[in-house]
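Changelog note: in this version the structure field was regenerated for every chain. One regenerated record is shown below for reference.
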Amino acid sequence: MAPASPKIVDYQQHLPRSFKKRLRKSNRYIVLHSTESGLRSALRTLSRRGHSNYLVARNGTIYRILDKKYRSHHAGLSMWNGLRDISSHSIGIELVGYHNDPFTASQYESLKWLIEVLQRVYKIPDRHVLEHYRVAYGRPNRWVKRLHRGRKKDPGVFNFSRARAGLTSEDPRNSILYDPDVRAGRLIPDPDIDIARVRLVDRGRYDIEVAQLSENVITRRNTAWRIARGEYDDPMTVYRFPNGTVMRGNQIRNWDRIPVGTKVYLNRDRTEDVQAVTAAVPVIIQGTTAFDIAGTAYRRSDTYYIFPTGTIKSGRQVRHWNRIPPGTRVLVRYNAPVALNSAGRQAVRRDDTVFLVPRSEVLVAASVPDASRLAGGTLVFTRK
């Protein structure tokens, strides 16, 4: 019995009237992406200029952004087997989510169904269904001196499963390790693909390497380019330095002086989004997600969510991520809360200590001149 078709929502009416639909030059490929944002933000961005043909939500719903026969500008600077401008030769499909956070079973089921439909219509083999990071390429920059793969990271070298999407052909070209342009010397390889090869010979080392690259925090090894790739200097990429300074990528001039511990946020186009994720105590608003703020730590037991009602839950206790209400505060890598009279004097004085005052008022110690005057029942969160 064939699986039921997923729910499909036609979203084309949200395209601007000025958008001009035009047919593609050919229908050789399907290119898969991840939005690096939540559903609301993705729908707003993609429909603004027809940046994808389809969007698959976390619950499996498929949104038709632009009819499959029209060209969507989804691949950007791209090449495959010497052919450039892959957007003019491919259908673009976005998955709501992030390159370093697993996609849902519902997404894979809907994506598999959609791919099979498009493969039948356009006679596209599995090997021509390609991840965005495989077709995108970048021009030389301060970190990479030649034309190179690695300009994009979506939908994830270590995250996306071709098999779960139904791409099971045994053709060796149906592998993320196959790249005709690297083989031909037109491009140098994506460094993440080198790590993917390690999995074949040393799974332990592979797991360590992936863990080191999984968070959007700058370390001695994890540079701005390794995190944001081609968007490292983009105005929609936001950096929050350890001292609280916030800058957009196009405002930074000296990349050698970005301090370790700087957090990197992608796709932050609106001012309110930037303010929400970079605040001393970040807050979830319409269009932002827990992952936008906490990254891969969003499900951890030491990430705490303070709901507008004053209810507190750790990442392990949250079950319905799409129901987190706007106004929820997020604390990443904090100890469990204790009563104010049980907290140590030194901990209370630390600038990054957070107080939850009765009636759900959230305060940062740096802005509290005298913690002893806080109301009885105040809870204290201290950073690990």
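Spot check on this record: The chain is about 20% helix and 15% strand. The two ends are 52 Å apart (CA to CA).
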